[in-house]
Automatic annotation (TrEMBL):
This is PD-(D/E)XK nuclease superfamily protein.
Length: 322
């Protein structure tokens, strides 16, 4: 089983905390990647930035990736701190990651990157990124006139557009990145990770330990499968490590839902934002059966009641054939 799928919290659901923590590790100077992914991440930022370019700021516009890494490592050090509290007076905001780039020569801060990770549409908060920027630039952590980049990383969904629009209004150096892209294959965090592996294969960067390679590839597989889309436009999903094998949408009492069946035959109910609902499934299946007039028998011919797995499969098939 994929290590990230097995470590996901909440019954196998996607965990923003898990993903944020691993991204923080990838960006930190103290890891064994020797800043190679960090510079690929900076390049991704620049390709999506309407404002100042971080490559210009750090003098990284010339040479091969290896030469850029050497220049950066000789001149700068990076710390990436997850769940960073930004305090102003008696209030605070939490940045998912604060990346601090400092000069080695005099230890002064060169720039800051405030990263906010969002993977569920329901968690979109239009003012969150702009408020973090406001708090940070008024906090004791901020050195006056040092550039601040606000980076919003999300799944590829327009649900986060308002967050980015407000972030850009507050900070012209705001960047919106996607974990995966459904339209631009080479413009995502996943694509930058694939670049990292390709560069290592042809010895353009220092070798990566096999165990670390395995973990990175597991992470790539995790975000690629969890955040990709099928031809129907429905997000691929796994639950407790089992892949989705069938699904059907339905409306009940004016609310829209999705029934999903997984590789171990269990059936779960999700809302429009693809979040699993903590509700008894079988009574809801009976409601759907009655509301849609399917008249599916609740019992086997032997008189034994059908379990949720069998009844759920029949309801999903009926909805898809309706």
């Amino acid at each position: 089983m994929n290590i990230f799928k097995s470590l996901s919290q909440g019954n196998g659901q996607i965990s923003e905390t898990n993903i944020t923590s691993f991204l923080s590790y990838l960006l930190n100077t103290s890891n064994e990647l020797s800043n190679s992914f960090l510079l690929l991440f900076f390049d991704l930022m620049d390709r999506n930035s309407p404002g100042e370019k971080i490559y210009d700021l750090l003098g990284l516009n010339h040479g091969t990736l290896r030469e850029k890494i050497i220049h950066f490592t000789n001149n700068y050090v990076v710390s990436a701190t997850p769940e960073f509290p930004i305090r102003v007076d008696l209030t605070k905001q939490i940045a998912d990651i604060l990346v601090r780039v400092s000069a080695k020569r005099d230890e002064t801060d060169v720039c800051y990157i405030l990263i906010e990770n969002k993977i569920k549409k329901a968690s979109a908060n239009p003012s969150q990124v702009s408020k973090q920027f406001e708090y940070f630039t008024n906090s004791a952590e901020y050195e006056q006139d040092v550039p601040v980049f606000s980076v919003l990383i999300t799944t590829d969904s327009p649900a986060f557009s308002a967050m980015y629009k407000n972030a850009l209004a507050a900070n012209p150096d705001s960047v919106w990145l996607r974990w995966t892209s459904h339209t631009e294959r080479d413009n995502s965090v996943e694509a930058s990770l694939r670049q990292l592996i390709r560069h290592e294969m042809v010895a353009e960067i220092t070798p990566i330990n096999l165990n670390t390679q395995f973990i990175i590839k597991s992470f790539m597989d995790y975000i690629a499968t969890e955040f990709s889309q099928k031809g129907t436009g429905v997000k691929n999903y796994s639950f407790n490590g089992f892949d989705e094998v069938a699904s059907a949408s339905f409306t009940l009492n004016g609310e829209n839902y999705v029934l999903k069946r997984f590789g171990n035959n269990m059936v779960r109910v999700f809302n429009e934002d693809d979040e699993v609902l903590d509700t008894p499934v079988k009574p809801l299946l009976r409601e759907v059966n009655d509301a849609y007039g399917f008249n599916i028998d609740l019992y086997h011919s032997t008189g034994i009641a059908k379990n949720t797995q069998i009844f759920g499969r029949e309801i999903i098939n009926a909805l898809n054939n309706n």
